[in-house]
Amino acid sequence: MSRKHSSDRADRFQYLQTLVTEFQDTDNDEAKEQVLANLANFSYDPKNMDDLRQLQVTDLFLDMLTEENQNFVEFGLGGLCNLSMDRECRDLILESGGIPLVTARLSSRREETVLSAITTLMNLTTAASRPQVTDAAVVQCMLRFSLSESPRLRNLAGVFLQDCCTERQVARAEQQMPGGQQTVLGIPLPADSAP
Amino acid sequence: MAAPVNRPDCWKTPEIYTHHEQRKVCISRPKYRDGRKAKAVKVYTINLESRYLMVQGVPAIGVMTELVQRCALYGAIEEYRPLDEYPAEEFTEVYLVKFLKLTSARAAKRHLDEKSFYGGVLHVCYVPEYETVEDTRLKLQDRRRYVVRMCQNIAREREQTKEANEEDPMPPDPTPPDPTPPDPAPQSERPTTSTAEKPSAGDYAPDHSSAGHYFGFPSLPLPPREDSWYRRNTNQARPLEDRMGSLHDAITDTGPCETPGTSTRVQHKDTETRVTPTPASAARFVPRTTHLENRKRRLEEPRDPLLLSSSSDVVGENSPLIGPQLPEPPKLDMEDESLNTTVHQIRNTLKQVASVPENKPGKEKKTKPRRRI
């Protein structure tokens, strides 16, 4: 039985490795997207996180953030969102300079990408990384998101502002917002305009 | 029981978000990674999941109670209401169901999506847009805690397995191995994460006779365990994930342990079958150091002010704006002459009107009765 279980684990690792290899070897974008989505979905299960970490899939996902193909970006960031829940993966992502790569994606047109970026940033917040994560530009961005029409975006930005930022940081970012909060056009302000 | 969802914006016409739509299934997967069920290419993150489910396609024949009862099979329901404002196909209704736990919602979605119900076919999806900020926060916190706990358990079990394997080849042991009966003492402090080997889908009973194992087996009935991910087991029709990693569809036994996968498998490794990439597979596996170096170079080249200003609170003049740009407020130049154009025109007209009676002093003004239209 023990051999059966260890072989299960070996098979699982082998399978994940095959996926990674296919991703690296194939030129077909459609196949790449499928495999990337598979890896990102496998990243959701804590059981796989160790194997994926060994296979350097965190770097694979980070590489996707600078791709032209928006599906690659979306799936890669989804994978990072999933993996960064694990502390060791989080540390790996931080070591590989993940924060600026992720914050750059906050300006993506795709909502899923932006949502994954916000969640990933929250996961990447440690005592050491907090100054970088709560940089004034990022806080201002989150303030703008907290006024968005999209409820998911509003909620996530709200959680970020409340959990990752100090009140002082938020107040300062509010003051520095171009034009101030009250004259924002095109974005309906909630009745209670406090973030 | 039937509690309407109290939200100030519940009277607004709900948006039809793209994540509600069913995507086309992917038909081009190679066999080795083709799952049992055709699925679309989609990545699930915690943001897409929610305790809130929307159920479409419910036949409009007054079966709300039956629907709620069916949903309740997967876990306690906190609230539910019909979504009259959501566009629905003819003769069907749409319902919003809020579960107490995310795992229940996950199970319900897995079991009810695409299933027939009183002559119709249900389409079930998560609707995280109905969450409050607090809902979202709790969801993220729960998820983080769950992952951390699971990873710790897995790491701990692997340590214990390693120790056990190291102890194995030691026959002259001060405490002689006692394969039967099991010794519950070491297990008693870990009630939820038993180090005992679990039977796989009822294939075999707990084997006490493995040579040299110190692990005892709890005398309690085993908690529900997840099946092996790639084994097709018809006895337990709930694989944890398929070859496409679709774990989000995994159901859990909604018993006392509500988080999925709380039962764990001990990885009994024989020393000769150590799980490491074999030399043969290493040849196929391309090291990623080159990619890492490329990325480092890319990071270093454009000196991103964002990286430099990490210690400051102020956004510099040159720092790139993150996130979408807002439309700029109209700039008002108080010195601009055009602001006074209308005023000048009015003044001129008034002057003209005022000057008219001076030219014709003789004319008498008759007050005509005003005609009201």
Automatic annotation (TrEMBL), chain A:
SUPFAM superfamilies associated with the record: ARM repeat (SSF48371)
Entry-linked Gene3D superfamilies: Leucine-rich Repeat Variant
Classification via PANTHER family: ARMADILLO REPEAT-CONTAINING PROTEIN 7
Protein name in UniProt: Armadillo repeat-containing protein 7
Protein species of origin: Merluccius polli
TrEMBL record, chain B:
UniProt feature, compositional bias: Pro residues: 171-185
Name of this protein: RNA-binding protein 48
Signal sequence coordinates: none
Domain of life of the source: Eukaryota
Function: As a component of the minor spliceosome, involved in the splicing of U12-type introns in pre-mRNAs.
GO MF annotations in UniProt: RNA binding
The organism's taxonomic lineage, starting at the top: Eukaryota, Metazoa, Chordata, Craniata, Vertebrata
Keyword Signal: no
GO CC list: nucleoplasm; spliceosomal complex
Matches recorded under InterPro entries: RBD_domain_sf, RBM48, RBM48_RRM
Originating organism: Merluccius polli
